[in-house]
Amino acid sequence: MIKSLLIANRGEIACRVIRTARSLGIRTVAVYSDADAQALHVREADEAVHIGPAPTRESYLVGERIIAAAKASGAEAIHPGYGFLSENAEFAQAVMDAGIVWVGPNPSSITAMGLKDAAKKLMADAGVPVTPGYMGEDQSPGLLADEAGKIGYPVLIKAVAGGGGKGMRLVESEEDFADALASCKREAAASFGNDHVLIEKYIASPRHIEVQVFGDKHGNAVHLFERDCSLQRRHQKVIEEAPAPGMDAATREALCAAAVRAAKAVDYVGAGTIEFIADGSGKLAADKIWFMEMNTRLQVEHPVTEEITGVDLVEWQLRVASGEPLPMSQEDLTIDGWAMEARLYAEDPAKGFLPSIGKLELLQFGEAEGGRIDTGVYEGAEVSPHYDPMIAKVIAWGDDRDEARERLGEMLQDSAVWPVKTNASFLVKALQHPDFAAGKVDTGLIGRDGEAMGEPPVPSDDVLQAAADALVPVTDMAGFRLNAAPRRAAWFLLDGEKVEIALTSEGSEEPATGVLVTEQGQAWLLTPWRHDAAHGAADGSGAIVAPMPGKVIAVEVEKGDVVAKGQKLLTLEAMKMEHTLTAPFDGTVAELNASAGAQVQVDALLVKIEESE
Prior knowledge:
Cofactor: biotin
Number of helices: 16
Pfam family, one: CPSase_L_D2
Protein name: Acetyl/propionyl/methylcrotonyl-CoA carboxylase subunit alpha
Structural class: alpha+beta
Shape: globular
InterPro entries: ATP-grasp, BC-like_N, Biotin_BS, Biotin_carboxylase_complex, Biotin_carboxylation_dom, Biotin_COase_C, Biotin_lipoyl, CPAse_ATP-bd
Radius of gyration: 28 Å
Helix content: 25-40%
Number of strands: 37
Largest sheet: 8 strands, antiparallel
Organism: Novosphingobium beihaiensis
Strand order of the largest sheet: 14-13-10-11-12-15-22-20
């Protein structure tokens, strides 16, 4: 067994590898960029080596620096994680040439499966069913159009070097083919430096089913059953599960046997995934499932396979890389229960899933029996604009699919992150969608019904009332209104928006200055109402305070300026929106504590206006 390991990655997967390595008594070395100096994977490793500036092309994608870090730290082996350099055959070869153990497949296997057209030809020769299509060298537009016609519309144009949904176009008719081809080639050239494409039959109700395979250096290869990753948004996986809904024993046996043949065809060593596309318009059948591509690395969604098999796939990777045979034979591997994984991202579904960056001032993960959290962040850490905004992988196991689904929903609903926005509510609504709940899911489900899933949640009245009661001081005049019946209600700011909330108690002897409201996997800040973006200060003091954490992007006044009621004072950017703060009355700028570009916290005094006499 290797004694020391460098993880050529960051975030969640780096922490995941460190966890298993530590359990095996292996010394771990992390690498980090300027932006990751305080990252969780750096804190958890036995040693950490700085490799460059924040941009990935200057740090995590520079193979020479990673190899140099391994040599300097005395690491015997390098684990690439997923993404970055994990499927780079040249890097793998350079690691091996440097006398360092590569925890991954042989470079020749990566190369063989790296281009979609060559991989499909290789799989067809190995007896693996492939989607009907054209994978030839002739890339002339006329010939490609002719081949599309022979296949029959609709067709998919796919960059042979593509991935992640880039370099892919759906073409419904012959008239649209030329424009789609030109667009696809441009995107492929810009993204991958290779504009070659293949054409394949488009499956109207596609399901994305993949098989986990594993090989060792002694010629052994096994499968660890299938995963279903059909719930996707713009070709990006959202929720994954194992096993696949509707998979019978005969179809599973045929599919997994094909996956093992695929692995053996390239003498595969280590963890890999054979991805298939299935016709989901009816019952799953072996003759309606075709090879799509192979991922020559550990997948993001590997935990669901671990949960149903009891296997630590990272441990297998390290043992195989050390020269050991596979720890289990095919006959020893069985499926136990059901598992689901959701990717909790720092993004705002209400604003087109834009990344939401900033400090994780609150980070709370829900718990459930059979639950698991894989994360690369901690409360107080920063969500950086430089990298993938994943906060955690939330995983749940159950005896059956409904139990796993319900437990996952429970964990997501009990999670809370603030002030960074997340997709937790979106994930919960996806889990609750009638088709998904029934196991009737294809890759187009979110495209059809995703708008409703992305609607921003609203905290319940009960939760708001409990929070509001904690903000209101006890007073004998509570609820009093001149010439009217008493009414217990007050105005507050909920994430900067003015709301009226009914009060259910006499208030608090020691009222809080703010309360974080958490529900449905979301968090909101509730504060006493002082002003809103349209009316400036509301308490008569002339104090203009920040309604939420944010960045000052413009200051329109200077200290000593005479201002009129309603005059624009400054603009605050918070939660991807601009908030204009205005003068509450005619007066003079007595204090100015803000400058353009400054980051401010909630309730920070920005401007003080003294009323004109």
